[in-house]
Write a structure and sequence with these properties.
Number of domains: 6
Keywords: Aminoacyl-tRNA synthetase, ATP-binding, Ligase, Nucleotide-binding, Repeat, TPR repeat
CATH architecture of the largest domain: 2-Layer Sandwich
Shape: globular
Radius of gyration: 38 Å
Number of strands: 25
Family: Belongs to the TTC27 family. Belongs to the class-II aminoacyl-tRNA synthetase family. Type-1 seryl-tRNA synthetase subfamily.
Oligomer: single chain
GO molecular function: ATP binding; serine-tRNA ligase activity
Protein name: serine--tRNA ligase
CATH superfamily of the largest domain: Bira Bifunctional Protein, Domain 2
Pfam families: TPR_8 (PF13181), tRNA-synt_2b (PF00587)
Strand order of the largest sheet: 6-20-21-22-25-19-18-13
């Protein structure tokens, strides 16, 4: 645009006021001979530049009060546009002018409609994800005017790019407003406009090139040796777009590379030709991104769909960041055709897809940060950032990028960092969530009130205040402030009336008001339908669900979850005629099937309902809820074959599914030989009924938080199920006689007698195998009852079964048992299910005790725990009210309750740490070098012989004989020692000196073993063994028993020790057993876990009283093991925190007496202090505050050693008192002198963590030649 036009536009803007009308502004433009189209385009370009593109752009001067007026004028359904958007007043005038010109223009209708469509797109973007029915209506009106093909053909002067922008924007808006059919039509029109032949089922042809999903061999990781298939969009073009190639390199956003030690930045395809893609035009790249969006709609939300969407996105990114062709000179390489908005959108979409990958999360965060930063950069300028291509894409705004980055941080648990962004952009829902997670919900209220006090009296703020305070008066205030136009306020009130007050009639009134204002609230339609079900307003419920699936067919699956309860309710109301059923026999789509099923479940129309559900299965074959409803309806109708098929399908989809009601109907039909809907005897289905009963039994005995044998209701259900199964089998003679008769009638005159004998033999084989299975099943049940109920005669549970003459006859006929052996005396094999065992005994009535609740709340606050006690109490109240299915969830939360806190433990953050002892003093870098030999002696054990060995290579003993002086030098950390050069003082080549760097490997282990690993070689490896033996000697002398422990433990063991195995706080590595999907194993994080597992299920006692009273009330163990930890922050010094290391651990048990426990705790602490003092370390002993305690710890004391090279105190040991927290979960008991068994108290402490100990030793005893000196013999006799 010329400078003259720009200056004239500026003059027009200066003359605009709040009272300027559309016609008045058009008259002003006419007087100055300015094009209205160019003026509107100029305003939109400026608005896009300052809010989306960034970079330096010209500033437009106008009355800023227009922005405030625009903020009010652009409100839709009570929802304000984003108030931090810049130049909002200019956008307001641009939309008004484009709407007016599309009405009055006679020759440029389509161009102005395209401008209006752009304004609708931006207007909706400013409103956020809340779909506006007002804008949807405006959008439909524009489509109706533009869909006339004659209009497009007459206006042949329409620029090609403008027509492309129309199709792309209209497609995206159609998807956004749930108009999927229109989106597909528009996409087809766009492909025709771009001369692209599209087949959405698998192939796309672009200007003579072919595009399709395919697989290609390549490598994804750095360590991969063989090529594997990788998803790829392959493009084969018959000709290049040479006429459209860029003449110079365009501006691009910064691409963040994947800095991962395992994954490559991109797939390295083995075929070099696959790494090159034909050059695509900007329009083609945008159309690929549109195909990516349509692909998302046409496929399920799963990992495969995400990979396919990434293939689309990477195809576009390879256009902007191609691999350099090294065979061509730099000047001969063509510049790619690129566009700043296209690449920005592609990078943004890639980041949103990659955040679910652990290894790509960091890149996703960094890429979003780069995209956010580029908006504030002046270079490149806005003009060079391709503003003309903005409406080809869905390029995100600056605030959207930051908000998505904050949401990703929130998912990672970084609530404080995310909170800053949400506060900056006034995202109040997220602000409330962050403050809630941080335990500072009251601060959210203060922030909202401060905003209100500042004069921002908006309905959104009052609704947010109502959310945080749970005060419905603020919703009414929001309704009043909005002029009774806030759909959000009525929506919130409806939810309060529905879930809090249970006043469904008032909730329905509020739902109606909200949906009348905005009928595109799809989730609200669904909730409205549920509310109508509760209020027995079934006609309204049907309308709501029908509207829900009409808007989004994907949600039709979720509506099925309510149909079962709907069936049970409506079946009691009698029959009612429904006119809509007349179309049930026609071809029905999925959404109509679900709604017609709702109508048809009245008693007289159940046969139609069954047909509808069968039709629904064609569209959602893997939906277990549909199959469940088929089983219900078919059982009512007597279609037992359909019932059995549905049950089998549900079993395939849900292994633990069990419905006693349906199985009871099947079994009763088989036993009583009830004819089915086709008048066939149900006894013919006996074998299938038995299979369902057997599966039902397996479901009843599946492992849960509380074993079935400890729950009276489940115990009774298991026994009754076995009795039911037995009744189905015991009538053997009648079964065989009827089968024989039926077979004979069917085969007389047609088949030989051998076929009848074969069928009879098959029936006998089935009965024999089933009886054998039943016998084993009863043995297993009896064994579980005996093991878990040892003080009661468990046989009485199955007494009716054992006394059944028919069952005994069947057993004797088909199963050969010794005559003297009763059924329940057969050899029993006990199978251990770890997930059933380690549950803490907890009295649920404590949750009714206000004192216990307040103590627990204070303890959680002191420990800065994220556990929501209010949610747990709410679960308990619901469980008491009859929702027994919540018991497992309730127990899961109770298991996360932390231990009590010791009175000596400081309350608060890490700053409250209290030092209780300091040993030694810090060593400086001043060293006196003498001509003396300096050795360290390492004790090496060979059998029972102790050999003292002097290790000269690691500890340099030879210095120049005549050099005796004081040297000042800088002490180094372990990482520097391992990479330092030998000192010049070592001039004698005959000296056999091996500095630390020769045997300590930290920097070059990534390729071989991954990051945060280490290698000890030669003398350092011997030093490791010596430290282990030195520590074990010390511990054994104090009375600890040495135990060898495993490194792989079941997950419940680790959970029982108080270490979380799931979630963001977990540091545990998981190992999955492919042969046992019910059991998950983990790598042990410390020998404490193995020692605790060693004591699990055992009972200890005081033993004979010694002269000293302490040993008689305590048992101590020690073990050495490898420890595996996931957490290893990059900011911490190398060798200080690694993924796996060796450690000597102490573990103690005492009688459940506080004095005995404190005495053992002091003993363990004194042992640690003595051990570290013998090694010549400077260390401090710290009483750790409550926020540093794990769930299992009652009290914790850490020992930190001074590490001179790193200039820090580093933790080398920790001692914890766990009281009975672990013993309750592991059933570790202590036999009291009175004979009573109580849960023991457990304690643990670190004997020697090898890497940190070696780090402390070599940094403490280092010298100026990057080697170490030692003075003491590593022996426990010191």
């Amino acid at each position: 645009m010329s400078d003259r036009s720009t200056s004239e536009f500026q003059c027009v803007l200066c003359s605009i006021t709040i009272n300027t009308t559309d016609d008045g502004l058009l008259d002003t433009l006419l007087e100055k001979s300015l094009s209205a189209y160019s003026f509107i385009d100029h305003l939109l370009t400026h608005f896009v530049s300052v809010n989306f593109l960034g970079g330096e752009c010209e500033s437009l001067t106008y009355d800023k009060s227009i922005d405030e007026q625009a903020l009010l004028a652009l409100c839709c359904e009570g929802e304000r546009p984003f108030k931090y958007a810049k130049a909002l007043g200019l956008f307001w005038f641009a939309k008004r002018l484009s709407a007016r010109m599309s009405e009055v223009s006679r020759t440029m209708v389509f161009p102005y409609l395209v401008l209006l469509l752009k304004c609708i797109y931006l207007h909706q973007y400013l409103l956020g994800q809340e779909r506006s029915s007002q804008l949807d209506t405006e959008f439909v009106e524009v489509l109706d005017k533009c869909n006339c093909e004659e209009e497009l053909s007459v206006n042949a002067t329409v620029p090609h790019d403008e027509e492309t922008a129309y199709y792309l924007i209209a497609s995206y808006l159609s998807v956004f407003y749930y108009r999927y059919d229109a989106a597909e039509v528009l996409a087809n029109r766009c492909s025709a406009h771009l001369q692209i032949v599209v087949n959405f089922t698998g192939k796309v042809l672009f200007f003579g090139f072919d595009h399709r999903f395919t697989g290609a061999l390549g490598k994804r990781t750095r360590f991969q040796q063989t090529d594997v298939a990788n998803l790829l969009i392959r493009i084969d073009r018959s000709h290049e777009l040479s006429s459209e190639l860029a003449s110079e390199a365009g501006a691009l956003p910064k691409l963040v590379l994947l800095d991962d030690d395992t994954l490559l930045n991109t797939v390295a395809f083995s075929d070099p030709d696959l790494r090159k893609s034909p050059i695509l035009s900007v329009q083609e790249q945008c159309f690929i991104l549109l195909l990516c969006e349509l692909h998302r709609l046409a496929h399920p939300k799963d990992d495969l769909t995400n990979e396919q969407r990434l293939a689309y996105i990477n195809t576009v990114l390879r256009q902007a960041y191609p691999e350099i062709d090294k065979d061509k000179p730099v000047e001969e390489r063509p510049y790619p055709i690129i566009s700043w908005p296209v690449i920005t959108e592609a990078l943004f979409r890639r980041s949103l897809l990659e955040h679910t990958s652990v290894r790509r999360t960091e890149r996703a965060l960094n890429q979003l940060e780069e995209l956010s930063n580029q908006v504030d950069m002046n270079e490149p300028t806005a003009e060079k950032r391709s503003p003309e291509h903005f409406f080809f894409t869905r390029m995100p705004s600056s605030w959207s990028i930051q908000i998505e980055q904050a949401r990703l941080l929130m998912q990672l648990g970084c609530y404080k960092s995310a909170l800053d962004v949400f506060l900056r952009w006034n995202q109040w829902s997220e602000v409330i969530e962050c403050y809630t997670q941080l335990g500072k919900r009251q601060l959210a209220e203060e922030a909202i009130r401060a905003q209100l006090d500042a004069g921002d009296q908006s309905a959104e703020l009052y609704c947010a205040l109502g959310d945080v305070t749970k005060n419905r008066e603020y919703y009414w205030k929001a309704w009043e402030v909005s002029g009774e136009r806030s759909a959000r306020a009525m929506r919130s009130l409806a939810v309060v009336y529905m879930y809090v007050d249970k006043d469904y009639q008032k909730a329905i009134e509020c739902f109606d008001k909200s949906l009348q204002i905005n009928n595109l609230q799809i989730s609200l339609w669904f909730t409205f339908g549920c509310c109508c079900l509760q209020a027995s307003e079934y006609a309204k419920a049907e309308t709501a669900f029908r509207r829900c699936v009409t808007l989004d067919p994907e949600l039709s699956v979720s509506t099925v979850v309510h149909f079962r309860s709907l069936h049970h309710r409506i079946s009691k109301l009698g029959t009612i005629a429904q006119a809509q059923l007349c179309s049930a026999e026609e071809t029905i789509d999925l959404s109509l099937v679900y709604n017609l099923y709702y109508l048809a479940i009245y008693p007289l129309f159940r046969d139609i309902a069954l047909k509808l559900l069968k039709e629904a299965c064609k569209y959602s074959y893997d939906n277990w809820r549909i199959w469940e409803n088929i089983s219900l309806i078919s059982a009512d109708l007597g279609c037992f074959t359909d019932t059995i098929q549905a049950c089998h399908r549900i079993v395939d989809l849900r292994e633990k599914y069990n419905d006693d009601q349906i199985l009871g109907v099947l079994s009763k039909a088989v036993l009583e030989d009830v004819p089915d809907a086709q008048d066939k005897p149900a006894s013919l289905l006996r074998s299938k009924a038995v299979q369902n009963l057997q599966h039902a039994h397996r479901c009843r005995v599946q492992p849960t938080d509380i074993p079935w044998e400890q729950q009276p209701e489940r115990r009774t259900a298991v026994v009754n199920g076995l009795l039911f199964l037995t009744d189905t089998l015991v009538n053997v003679d009648q079964l065989l006689a009827k089968t024989d008769a039926v077979s004979t009638l069917e085969l007389i005159g047609d088949s030989p007698q051998e076929k009848t004998d074969l069928q009879l033999a098959g029936q006998k084989a089935f009965i024999r195998s089933t009886m054998s299975t039943l016998r084993i099943t009863i043995q297993s049940v009896m064994g579980h009852l005996k093991l878990n109920r040892p003080n009661m005669f468990v046989c009485r549970f199955l007494h009716p079964l054992s006394q059944s003459p028919k069952f005994k006859q069947a057993i004797n006929r088909y199963i050969s048992l010794p005559n003297t052996m009763r059924l329940w005396e057969c050899p029993l094999r006990r199978y251990h299910h770890s997930s059933d065992c380690f549950q803490p005994p907890f009295d649920l009535s404590l949750l009714d005790d206000p004192k216990f609740v307040e103590q627990t709340r204070a303890n959680l606050k002191a420990r800065e725990s994220t556990l929501d006690l209010d949610f747990t109490l709410d679960l308990y109240r619901r469980y008491q009210s009859g929702e027994t299915e919540l018991h497992a969830d309730l127990i899961r939360f109770i298991r996360q309750l932390p231990n009590s806190t010791h009175p000596l433990t400081p309350i608060g953050s890490p700053s409250k740490t209290k030092q209780i002892y300091l040993h030694g003093s810090k060593r400086t870098g001043k060293l006196v070098i003498s001509p003396m030999f300096v050795f360290v002696e390492i004790v090496v054990y060979h059998g029972a012989t102790i050999v003292s060995t002097q290790i000269q290579p690691i500890f340099p003993s030879c210095f120049p004989r005549k050099l005796v002086k004081s040297v000042d030098w800088q002490m180094k950390d372990a990482a520097t020692l391992c990479s330092s050069e030998p000192h010049k003082l070592l001039v004698d080549p005959s000296d056999h000196v091996c500095p630390v760097n020769e045997h300590l490997r930290l920097a070059d282990t990534t390729v071989g073993a991954g990051p945060r690993t280490y290698y000890f070689g030669g003398p350092l490896a011997q030093l490791e063994l010596a430290l282990i033996q030195f520590t074990l000697d010390k511990l054994i002398q104090t009375g600890c028993a040495l135990v060898s422990v495993p490194d792989i433990l079941p997950e419940p063991i680790i959970e029982a020790c108080g270490f979380p195995t799931r979630g963001t706080r977990s540091q545990v590595y998981h190992l999955c057993d492919p042969h046992n999907s019910e059991m998950t194993y983990c790598l042990s994080g410390t020998a404490e876990m193995g020692l605790a597992a060693f004591c699990a299920g055992r009972t200890f006692d005081c033993g004979p009283t010694d002269e000293d009273c302490l040993p008689s009330t305590a048992v101590c163990f020690c073990a050495v093991s490898r420890c595996f930890r996931q957490e290893a922050p990059h900011q911490e010094p190398p060798l200080y925190r690694v993924h796996q290391f060796t450690k000597v651990e102490m573990f103690g048990l005492t009688a459940p007496d506080v004095l005995a426990t404190d005495a053992l705790f002091d003993k363990l602490l004194r042992t640690q202090i003595s051990l570290f003092a013998d090694l010549g370390l400077h260390f401090r002993v710290l009483e750790m505050p409550s926020s540093e305690l794990g769930n299992s710890a009652h009290r914790k004391i850490d020992i930190e050693a001074w590490m001179p090279g790193s200039k820090m105190f580093g933790e080398i040991s920790s001692t914890s008192n766990c009281l009975d927290y672990q013993s309750k979960r592991l059933n570790i008991q202590w036999a009291m002198p009175s004979g009573e068994k109580r849960f023991a108290h457990t304690l643990n402490g670190t004997g020697c963590a090898i890497p940190r100990m070696i780090k402390a030793l070599i940094e403490t005893h280092q010298n100026e030649v990057s080697s170490c000196k030692g003075k003491k013999r590593l022996s426990a006799d010191n």
